[in-house]
Amino acid sequence: MRRPKEDKYAFILVSDEPRWNQLCAHTKASSETSVFVRKSRVAPKYGQKLLFYIKKPDAQIRGVADIVERLTGSGKNLWEQLGKESCFGSFNEYNAFLKGRENATFIRFRNLRVFRIPISGLVFSSQIGFPLLPRGGKYLSIEEFCKLDVQSHFF
Q1: Which long-range contacts (CB under 8 A, 24 or more apart) does 143-147 make?
Q2: First and final CA of the chain: distance in angstroms?
Q3: Is 113 part of any domain?
Q4: Which CATH number does the domain housing residue 113 bear?
Q5: Residue 57: is the preceding peptide bond cis (ω within 30°)?
Q6: Residue 106 within a domain
Q7: How many CB atoms lie within 10 A of CB 127?
Q8: Do the domain assignments include residue 1?
Q9: Domain contains 5
Q10: pTM, two decimal places
Q11: What does the pLDDT look like over 69-119, one tens digit per residue?
């Protein structure tokens, strides 16, 4: 991943509960690098950390990981190269997720750590001062990331 700009230290990925559960199960089964798949060519281009925000039912940040790299391009080519790192069990399942889109983004990460105590949406918005999280995610500066006191959520 490119060296982060000061205001782009971490990126909050928005996911749903079923996909988060799949991702956690896959990551536990693998000690290697994992992939979060996004439709089309989208962020993050920068950053060192990923925060996983689960929008429903609880609107919580539930984990953090280290960004390895972001790859964009043909969904088929990315699947052939890195599909085994994704939480999808088959090309058909992956293709159904893409819903006919030809391009995808693979965000490779490692060291997924699931919080014992999730960061609630209310705490997040009060500490960062951002009332609504955009569907596409949001960058956080180093200062904003530190305000979340991520380490305290592991215990």
Answers
A1: 144/9, 144/10, 145/9, 145/10, 145/49, 145/51
A2: 29
A3: yes
A4: 2.30.130.30
A5: yes
A6: yes
A7: 14
A8: no
A9: no
A10: 0.88
A11: 999 999 999 999 999 999 999 999 999 999 999 999 999 999 999 999 898
